[in-house]
């Protein structure tokens, strides 16, 4: 390989790494600040700007390597998803909102293609996910200890204090405790970033041959352990436990990282035991309200699905339809149903929902047990699918949509 091609490979690899690193940062220019709610408020993020640079570099790399376009089974994944999304978007009543969601998913599909077709080492991607998880954990720790999240325009962080209604808190018998948001718009999405970082640390520990990197990964595991707990996300903790049990059952090593993560979680959890008990036992008004709200959203979604199951109501429009139905009775901005499978079915039709979930399930069946990287990325895919059944952000939040397809691209490449 020529020196020019080698240099271009390195530039492309580090451009991908920078893009992944920027994903959790919500710095953006909002294009429609007067939107009805946050779920139809769109903007250009910092990682979008770098994405343009990345696609340019990737296009040059593709041309210089004169790669043939390999029409394999993965190509039909992209083609099928693109076609169904385009049809649903075209027939949506709220075409502006649907088009914005369509663009974001197309960006994620391009990201899938870039990860799938390049030779960037899996270890680099995994280490970047670990760094993201550690950074978010550090922010979460600071926010919970200070009980204040100051607004920061450049980082895309809004101000949050536990005394204000609408802020995500844990109520105990004596106080309202602010949950850690990290740099994300909600503690649950911050928990997802941290969870993926924690799992990536286990996989990277298996792939790395450097003892000092392995030591750093053990430390990273401990940090993500307390970060995950301080988001107080029940789903993230539950999925982490499931992934660890799966890894142990299938004899996938990395017990040092797992142990460090567990110790970090137990130590920090012991300091906030009353809040954790409140979260688990659901004995305070904030917890019962949250579960009642989720149940109501599910009922609304199921009722809507009865009438629109073949084609949906339009990508990204479920909150607009619900808002129209409830008129002025909405105290807070409506949120989508907290189950991505059901949400996709409502917005895009049952066929899109089936396709969206068949892709990761098919990827899991292709897992090569003999490949450390391939088997490890399967754990990431399972984690994404598991989390998506408890929340909607892998469909509604740009960062998480991209991460969903990035994880799939890495898994299909390694298997």
Structure at a glance:
The chain has about 425 residues and is mainly α.
How would you sum up this structure, described in words?
The chain has one domain (72-414). The longest helix has 25 residues, at 122-146. It has 17 helices and four strands. Helix 6 packs antiparallel against helix 9 (255-271) and helix 13 packs across helix 14 (350-365). A two-stranded antiparallel sheet has the order 1-2. The chain has a two-stranded antiparallel sheet with strand order 3-4. Strand 3 (169-171) and strand 4 (176-178) form a beta hairpin. With 415 residues, it is mainly α. Helix content is 69%, strand content 3%.
Radius of gyration: 21 Å
Structural class: mainly alpha
H/E element sequence: HEEHHHHEEHHHHHHHHHHHH
Strand content: under 5%
Which percent bin holds the helix content?
Answer: 55-70%
- Kindly, what is the distance between the CA atoms of the first and last residues, rounded to a whole number of angstroms? 25 Å
Average per-residue pLDDT, rounded, comes to 88
Low-confidence regions:
323-333
Architecture blueprint of SSEs:
Blueprint: H1 3-22, E1 28-30, E2 43-45, H2 46-65, H3 73-90, H4 95-117, H5 122-146, E3 169-171, E4 176-178, H6 187-207, H7 211-230, H8 234-249, H9 255-271, H10 273-281, H11 285-308, H12 318-326, H13 340-348, H14 350-365, H15 372-388, H16 393-396, H17 398-414
Antiparallel strand pairs: 1-2, 3-4
Helix pairs in contact: 1-2, 1-5, 3-4, 3-14, 4-17, 5-6, 5-7, 6-7, 6-8, 6-9, 6-15, 7-9, 8-15, 11-13, 13-14, 14-15, 15-17
């Amino acid at each position: 390989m020529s020196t020019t091609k080698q240099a271009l490979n390195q530039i492309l690899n580090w451009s991908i790494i920078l893009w992944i690193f920027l994903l959790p940062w919500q710095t953006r220019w909002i294009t429609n600040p007067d939107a009805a709610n946050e779920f139809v408020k769109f903007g250009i993020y910092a990682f979008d700007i770098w994405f343009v640079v990345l696609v340019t570099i990737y296009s040059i790399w593709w041309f210089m390597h004169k790669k043939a376009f390999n029409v394999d089974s993965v190509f039909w994944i992209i083609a099928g998803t693109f076609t169904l999304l385009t049809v649903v978007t075209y027939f949506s009543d709220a075409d502006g909102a649907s088009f914005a969601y369509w663009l974001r998913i197309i960006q994620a599909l391009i990201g899938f293609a870039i990860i799938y077709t390049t030779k960037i080492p899996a270890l680099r991607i995994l280490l970047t996910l670990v760094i993201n998880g550690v950074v978010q954990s550090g922010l979460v720790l600071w926010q919970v200890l200070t009980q204040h999240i100051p607004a920061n325009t450049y980082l895309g962080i809004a101000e949050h204090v536990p005394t204000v209604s609408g802020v995500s808190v844990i109520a105990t018998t004596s106080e309202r405790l602010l949950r850690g948001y990290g740099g994300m718009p909600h503690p649950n999405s911050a928990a997802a970033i941290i969870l993926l970082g924690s799992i990536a640390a286990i996989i990277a520990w298996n792939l790395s041959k450097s003892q000092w990197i392995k030591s750093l990964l053990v430390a990273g595991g401990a940090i993500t352990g307390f970060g995950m707990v301080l988001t107080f996300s029940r789903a993230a903790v539950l999925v982490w436990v499931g992934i660890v049990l799966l890894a142990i059952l299938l004899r996938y090593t990395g017990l040092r990282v797992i142990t460090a993560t567990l110790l970090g979680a137990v130590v920090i959890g012991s300091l906030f035991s009353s809040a954790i008990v409140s979260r688990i036992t659901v004995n305070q008004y904030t917890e019962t309200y949250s579960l009642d709200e989720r149940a109501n959203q599910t009922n609304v979604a199921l009722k809507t699905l009865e009438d629109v199951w073949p084609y949906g109501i339009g990508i990204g429009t479920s909150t607009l339809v619900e808002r129209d139905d409830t008129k002025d009775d909405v105290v807070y901005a409506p949120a989508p149903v907290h189950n991505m499978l059901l949400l996709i079915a409502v917005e895009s039709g049952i066929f899109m929902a089936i396709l969206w979930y068949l892709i990761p399930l098919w990827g899991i069946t292709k897992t090569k047990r003999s490949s450390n990287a391939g088997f490890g990325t399967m754990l990431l895919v399972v984690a994404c699918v598991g989390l998506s059944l408890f929340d909607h952000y892998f469909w509604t939040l740009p960062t998480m949509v991209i991460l969903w397809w990035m994880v799939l691209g890495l898994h299909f490449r390694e298997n």
